[in-house]
Amino acid sequence: MDNDNNNQIQNANQNQNENEMKNLEKKVTKNLIKDYSNLLNGNSFKDFSIFVENKSNPFEIKVHKSILSSRSPFFNESLRQESLFYFF
C-alpha cells in the first residue's frame, strides 16, 4: 500500500513539475516574441539601412544587421564583406 501511495505522490509531483515547465516555456516564449517585436518596430539600435530606389517614391528601411544575417544566408555573406552592394 505504501508503495502505491508513494508512486501516486511521485506521479502527481512529476505532472505538476511538467505543467509548471510548460507554463514557464509559454511565458518565456511570449516575452521573447514581445521583445523581438519591440526591437523590430522601434528605431533604437538599428545599424543598417536598405535604400529602395523607386522612381515615384524612394525610401529607406532601417534594419538590424544581426537579425538580417541570422535570418538570411544572402545577407549573412554580404554583410560579412562590409561593403556596399546594390540590387537591380
From TrEMBL:
Coiled coil: none
InterPro entries (alphabetical): BTB/POZ_dom, SKP1/BTB/POZ_sf
Classification via PROSITE patterns: BTB
UniProt feature, compositional bias: Low complexity: 1-18
Region (Disordered): 1-25
BTB domain segment(s): 46-88
Extent of the signal sequence: none
Protein name: Speckle-type poz protein
